[in-house]
Amino acid sequence: MNSFTKLGFILATLGSSIGLGHIWRFPYMTGEYGGSAFVVIYIFLTIFIGIPILVAKMVIGNKTQKNVVRAFDTLDPTVKKHWKKAGIMIIGGPLILTFYAVVLGWVFYYLAIVSFNLPDTIEASNNTFGAFVSDNVLASSASFGVCIFLTSYIVAKGVKDGLEKYNFILMPLLFIIFIGLFFYAMTVDSFDQAVDFLFSFNVNVINTDVIIMALSQMFFSLSIGVGTIITYSSSAKKGDNLLSSSAWVALSGIVISLIAGIIIFTFLFNYGQSASSGPGMLFKSIPLVFSQMAYGNIVSFLFFAAVLFAGITSTISILEPPVAYLSDNYNISRPKASYLLCVAIFAIGLLVILSLTEDYGPYLTFFGKGFMDWIDFFTAAIIMPLGALLALIFLGFVVSKKVVYRFVKGFMSRTIFNIWYFIIKYIATLVIVIVLIAKFVETFAKAAN
After folding, report:
1. How many independent structural domains does the chain possess?
2. Fewer CB within 10 Å, N- or C-terminus of the chain?
């Protein structure tokens, strides 16, 4: 795999995190889990836990220049070399894509179809989205197929001609369009209400669910725990300042999340809608605004194009780790590995699509959760935190402290290193363990009832 340039590495890593996780998932999670309380906890965890974990993952990849499995194997100082099994985290990526690319397919449908026939009432908007998701299996499957094929095509082309090239185009376009929408939202009467909802901290709504879901959002939005960061950093030049790269990625992600939240809640509140509108939030409020604007069809097309581009930068980053692993370890060409994985993802994704329909949904619901919800739960609340936990235990307790310091001394002072090392070895590890235990207890308690 060819190397990224410095800017290419930052944009690629930024693209892996800034996607539907920030624009689609963050707003609806905020609406369902406490508003400003969720936001504050998410920001706190991202800065004080997320950035140190990002650095740790980047160190593993950058110092070995290998895929996830081989990176752990190379750094493993033990005789039996069992730590290569930590590379199992790469299974989380394809699982995430089975529902993530389905949602991206919704974006594509709105880009290509709904933008030219915008609903002008909230009822019409709800009906448009509901009819598409619940009844139009063919359109949902076709849209999903377009997105997953485009993902496999870009990944198949490699780092220089695929990942870096497209990120240079897609990421700037996303920022330009979103900043423009933010300034437009500032002119809407409900803007202050949206800001209040996101930033007026209410400690009374904090509970275990809010903390767990804020942590899962941090992992999801930073692409932590599925091998993406290790894989991308293995293609960055050795000696890059991984601390500054991690800070750029995390802080930019927070900014995009907040901008997306303000825009979407401004539009929701302006039409008298509840903040807890669920996963369909992006597709119910935004089209209404465009229908009231001059040249709204064009703006809608550009908006959903930007969201699609942001989503594609994330899907390619999620698919890259397993493709790199298959290509490196089993001598399978990148195109073949990419397309084979996408066929498997498409097959499971069809079950996700069927689980959202009225006819087949009841057969794909287990213990009160739909098929899509279960995949989301296992990836964002279990596999991703567990993948991060393994990396932290590996650097904190398996690789010697002297060796780790030698890896980072080019961009960390001894004082900064000691603080970072303490966080990844004790604080971040403890937080993840506590949250994982709490989530397991809660899940099994609900299942028992």
Report:
1. 1
2. C
Which residues form the domain of 18? 6-448
CB-based contact 60:71 (threshold 8 Å): yes
CA distance 74 to 398: 13
1 falls within a domain: no
Tokens of 111: 């880009």
Phi and psi at residue 366, in whole multiples of 5°? -130, 125
Instruction: Check: CB of residue 316 under 8 Å from CB of residue 154.
Output: yes
Tokens of 343: 């066929």
Of residues 93, 36, 15, the one with CA closest to residue 253:
15
Q: Tokens 């980072």 correspond to what residue?
A: 408
pLDDT means per 10 residues, the chain with 449 residues, are 57 65 85 89 93 93 87 88 84 90 94 92 88 92 94 79 60 77 88 92 80 84 81 77 87 88 86 72 80 82 82 84 87 92 96 92 86 85 85 94 93 95 95 81 68
The domain spanning residue 342 has which CATH number? 1.20.1740.10
Torsion of CA 131, 133, 134, 140, to 10 degrees: 110
